[in-house]
Amino acid sequence: MRSPSPSRPSRLPRPARLRGPRRFAALLLCAAAALFPTAVPAGAAAPPPVPGTLQAYDIDSVFSAGVSSGGYMATQLHVAYSGTFEGSAVFASGPYDCARGQLATALNACMDTTQNLQLATLEQTTRDRSAQGQVDPVANLAGDPVYVFSGAGDSTVKRPVVDALADYYGRFGARVRYDRSTAAGHAWITPLGPNSCTVTQSPYLNNCGIDAEGALLGHLFGSVAAPGSGTGGSLIRFDQNLYAPGGSAAALSMGGEGFAYVPSSCAEGARCRLLVALHGCKQGYAYQGFGTRFVENAYLNEYADTNDTIVLYPQAAPTATLENPNGCWNWWGYLGDTAYARHGGKQIEAVMSMVRALVGGTGTPPPTSGRTVLSSTDAEDGYVKAAADGSGAALGTLEDLSGLALGRGTDGKVNRSLVSFDTSGIPAGKEITRAWLTVTRSSGSGDPWASPAGNRLLVDLRTGCFGGCAVEPADWSAAASVAGAARIDAFSSGSAVSTDLSAEALSALNRGGVTQFRLGFASAPAGTAYLFVNRDTPVTLTVEYR
Question: Where is the signal peptide, in residue numbers (predicted)?
Fold first, then answer.
């Protein structure tokens, strides 16, 4: 353990010194070579999961590990919260925020090599986010142990991409150990794996005759005792909804159930480490009956027993849509989460809530966090209509009868709606981490989302009011403080949640008074196609802070 220095703030919480479209179907992991060339163990039956909760233990260090999509998430956790995580083991994935929110970049630069991943840009983005407080100080990464692995047989995440990950960490002074010694396919390498070393196929648990876990844990911890049976503790099954922002794990493409392996020594009060282990695509508990195969066969519980280590196994889950059908972790910004790789990322914050629950009250407590839900001010809400070029603007008159209008009405005019919030209600002295709008459909006609195809609502933000705070015709085209602060994708009934407000929009929220938002379709529908929202209930603005 290293004592904190003035250049490296203490990491989150330790007792005294916490330092610290379908191609994604294949995105599933790989692993490492070993320091322990022991015979392949027979393996003992893992303890059955028992229902429970995440309790506080005496934890003095936290690490992340992951494979493929889980490897990308492990790096995101490490970089975003380097004050908490003091090292990471990453298999078959590339540098931090490689995808930059773009699926095409994820496919072509961060798995394949047909597109340059622009490593210098990724480095600068990290430094800029650090300076802006969107991730923890990058100075924390200096000296951190990082284990990187690439198998020669891995054609899913190609070797140059993983090379870039090792290079990325080196630019911040991390102590990188890079293992490129095997012909492994795209899989987690474990002595308990049923697959041969070089294949890439379910369950993506490959046996290469080596102890990869001894290698990665030895690098992260400095040294490790020989593994035990993996049966000397409890495998706890817990409710992930309790830790998901908004209370719904499914809304984040996470499973309802997560797991934590707690050795008896940790349960009895020993000082322990925490390892957050992240499976790859198609390896989550909820994916087509995959169950606990990763949890039981990753060969981490065996080391946990003899090295006083709790292993947290968060679970991603597939969506019913093409957003994430294979249950990958979010490393390219699916489901509209623009903050996926930094503070406020929905999955990142869910995992951090789990970590904080396990670390509990030891050491310095984490910053307090909370949420405020603001309702729009009815007297200052309304809609305006104009020709598509903004001419002939006039006030809408059907709000009381039908709600706030959006799209092209029967009169040929294009409607935009304005909603106003008293954002002075956000607690003073708190850092805003996320915010989003929720709207509810009242009625409509035609399909404005398909005219043109892929049409969506854009949300503009004005610090203060667009004109006077009461809606007026000029608001249709008045300048915004932040244009395109968020978007709302197609929905045909019920409520819809916008994407998170951009970082620029969060900064533009008026902490001393009113903030107005203007909603309108990105493209004016060609013919009559509109919807009304929030006839009976106000639009809400949800703000999370710490």
Answer: 1-44
